[in-house]
Specification:
Belongs to the TRAFAC class myosin-kinesin ATPase superfamily. Kinesin family. KIN-14 subfamily. Keywords: ATP-binding, Coiled coil, Cytoplasm, Cytoskeleton, Microtubule, Motor protein, Nucleotide-binding. Pfam families: Kinesin. It comes from Coemansia biformis. By secondary structure, the protein is an alpha/beta fold. The chain has 2 domains: about 200 residues, no CATH class; about 270 residues, Kinesin (3-Layer(aba) Sandwich), CATH 3.40.850.10. Helices cover about 55% and strands about 15% of the residues. Strands 1, 5, 6, 7, 8, 11, 14, 15 and 16 form a 9-stranded mixed sheet that branches. Strands 2-3-4 form a 3-stranded antiparallel sheet, covered by helices on one side. Strands 9-10 form a two-stranded antiparallel sheet. Strand 2 and strand 3 form a beta hairpin. Helix 1 crosses helix 3. The radius of gyration is 73 Å and the shape is elongated. The structure holds adenosine-5'-triphosphate.
Length: about 650
């Protein structure tokens, strides 16, 4: 915006105007002091322009002095006094003119200041507008700067990426070139080596050539000698060919001989296999003739407390060739109080005295074991009161698990497995291949327990096993659900098996024996055989059963849990007797299912083709005489049974 005209004008006045203002101001200052009436100023005025001066004479610098002094005059001095008054009037006029002049100057000065102020205001607005513009510019410049900074950073990144790419490419190229260089160097070295080798071989060939030339000349002379010796050799070859043809004739004769002998061997082997089959049949005929339920009696030696009453032994073994008799005498008081003795004679298939060895016992049993291998179901029981030697007969002494145990003390189970192994190895030569699978269970309080399961009982004796139930498999065979089946792949495996079973077996103390087994244990071995040469097959089962103590309730002194155990044992033993009796009578219904034991053994017990052997074990002590009598009477009942005819069980 342009400044107003007045302002322009005054600017043109420039510094001279301002100077005038300054002078006026100083004059004003002087005028301001007028009230003080400085005397010398009036005197100066009096001498200057006089009171009649015009108001327009403002260019002069008026100095107003003090008012003229009024001199004392006579009253009639009118002219003097007039003169004095005129001087005062003049002074007053001067003073008035000076004041007006000062007033004008002050107005001008005020006007100038106003113009200046307007000018300053105008300048200020212009400057503010300029500052706004400048700020806008600064903002837009800053934004531009930020944008360009971003752009620059982007470009920088791109350049860095490109640079990195270039570096990588450069590095790869450098590596490739290095590799190429190495290859070239290597092939150069190889070429150099080849060159050296070729030169060397060339040299050698040259030498060889020279040598060959020499040799050729030597050989030419040798050839002549050789041709003559060749003629001699040909004559010799003709002679040898004659000998060779003679020998070929001899070899042909020998081949014929070998063929006829192989034929004879095959015939003999076939004959052997037939004889093996015949042996099996004969063996089983013998077994059948012996009866398919047999009873052996075994008397254990006197031990510990028994030995005290050794003098009054109730058991005697009468001398006889068959070694099959035993006599038990019982002393009792008659009505008159007199002691009377009564003898009870018994006869079984075989009686073993207290001195009998495990060897002798097994010898009698081994034929039945062979029957199981031939495909028959076989059951061997040990029956008798607690402590009468059942476990000893079936397994051996307590520490049976020790593999280094004296073999002479081993019982029927380890010996049976050993015999089966020995026989399967022999039979393998005649084409038989067998698989053996074992299980070991106990029946305790009419419940089946798996003796081969990792842990049968918890700390408190609680049963932790899956439920073991008896069922018929698809081939109609009696099996136990969830039972642990162990592949008996070596004779030694049976030691482990018996040790685990012994650990798990339920043992509780009773009045009858310090260690008393309160459950039936049943070791079952399934034997499946197949003959690849004859196509025959067999499937036998061997059950070895160590029954729980058979003592009566009164003598076991049982109560509480022990009473329950004894009742369960007695019931199952009675069921066993019932089953055997029903079989002997030829009953249509056999009460197998009345106890877990008979149900489990259904397939192997009297089902027409089975073979059963019962060991009745008795203690020789007088204290056990009554229990021994009961055991021998039970065994006699069993012995009187004749059940069907054993038939071989074909494999499925
Ligand atoms: N023929 C024997 N020769 C040597 N020791 C024997 C004989 N028979 C049994 N014994 C010993 O007699 C003790 C009792 O035998 P065993 O444990 O075999 O009796 P058990 O009828 O199985 O008793 P339980 O019903 O408690 O199982 C054992 O120490 C055993 O070693």
């Amino acid at each position: 915006m342009p400044p107003p005209d007045s302002v322009k004008r005054r600017r043109i006045d420039g510094p001279s105007g301002l100077h005038a203002e300054a002078s006026l101001l100083s004059s004003k200052g002087a005028l301001g002091g007028q009230s003080a009436f400085p005397g010398p100023v009036v005197s100066a005025l009096g001498g200057g322009g006089g009171g009649g001066g015009s108001d327009d004479d403002d260019d002069d610098e008026d100095v107003v002095g003090p008012p003229p002094e009024l001199k004392p005059r006579l009253e009639n001095d009118v002219s003097g006094r007039l003169h004095d008054l005129e001087a005062v009037v003049a002074h007053m006029r001067l003073k008035n003119r000076t004041a007006r002049k000062a007033k004008r100057l002050l107005s001008v000065e005020l006007e100038q200041h106003e113009t200046k102020a307007a000018q300053h205001e105008y300048d200020t607005r212009i400057l503010e507008a300029k500052v706004d513009d400048a700020e806008k510019q600064v903002r837009s410049l800053k934004e531009a700067a930020v944008d360009s900074q971003k752009q620059l950073q982007n470009e920088k990144r791109q350049h860095e990426d490109e640079l990195e790419d270039i570096r990588r490419k450069h590095k790869r190229l450098a590596e490739e070139m290095g590799d190429e260089q190495l290859k070239l160097r290597k092939s150069l070295a190889e070429l150099n080596d080849a060159l050296v080798a070729t030169q060397a071989s060339l040299q050698a060939k040259r030498g060889e050539c020279t040598r060959l030339e020499a040799t050729i000349s030597t050989q030419a002379s040798d050839q002549v000698a050789l041709e003559s010796s060749c003629r001699g050799l040909r004559a010799k070859v003709e002679q040898l060919e004659d000998v060779l043809s003679e020998r070929e004739i001899r070899i042909a004769e020998l081949d014929e001989d070998v063929a006829s002998r192989s034929h004879t061997i095959e015939e003999l082997e076939a004959k052997l296999r037939k004889e093996e089959t015949l042996r099996r049949n004969l063996h089983n005929t013998i077994q059948e003739l012996k009866g398919n339920i047999r009873v052996f009696c075994r008397v254990r030696p006197l031990m510990g407390e028994d030995a005290d009453g050794a003098s009054a032994q109730p058991i005697k073994l009468p001398e006889c060739e068959e070694k099959n008799q035993i006599e038990l005498s019982q002393t009792s008081e008659n009505a008159l109080g007199r002691a009377t003795s009564k003898a009870f004679p018994f006869k079984f298939d075989r009686v073993f005295g207290s001195e009998s060895t495990q060897d002798a016992v097994f010898e009698e049993v081994s034929q039945l074991i062979q029957s199981a291998l031939d495909g028959y179901p076989v059951c061997i029981f040990a029956y008798g009161q607690t402590g009468s030697g059942k476990t000893h007969t079936m397994q051996g002494p307590d520490a049976i698990s020790a593999e280094d145990m004296d073999a002479a003390v081993l019982g029927i189970i380890p010996r049976a497995v050993k015999q089966i192994y020995a026989n399967t190895s022999k039979l393998a030569e005649r084409g038989w291949e067998y698989t053996l699978e074992g299980q070991f269970v106990e029946i305790y309080n009419e419940a089946i327990q798996d003796l081969l399961a990792p842990s049968v009982r918890g700390a408190a004796g609680s049963d932790k096993q899956a439920k073991l139930d008896i069922y018929q498999d698809s081939e109609g065979r009696t099996r136990v659900k969830n039972v642990t089946a162990v592949s008996v792949d070596s004779a030694e495996r049976v030691h482990w098996l018996l040790a685990r079973a012994a650990e798990n077996r339920t043992v509780a103390a009773t009045n009858c024996n310090e260690r008393s087994s309160r459950s039936h244990s049943v070791f079952t071995l399934y034997l499946r055989g197949r003959n690849s040469l004859t196509g025959e097959s067999s499937s036998g089962v061997l059950n070895l059963i160590d029954l729980a103590g058979s003592e009566r309730l009164s003598s076991s002194g049982s109560s509480g849990d022990r009473l329950k155990e004894t009742q369960a044992i007695n019931k199952s033993l009675a069921c066993l007797g019932d089953v055997i009796a029903a079989l002997a009578k030829g009953n249509r219904h056999i009460p197998y299912r009345n106890s877990k034991l008979t149900h489990l053994l259904q397939e192997s017990l009297g089902a027409g083709n089975s073979k059963t052997l019962m060991f009745v074990c008795v203690s020789p002590s007088a204290a056990s005489a009554q229990e021994s009598l009961c055991s021998l009477q039970f065994a006699t009942k069993v012995n009187s049974c004749q059940i069907g005819t054993a038939r071989r069980q074909p494999a499925s």
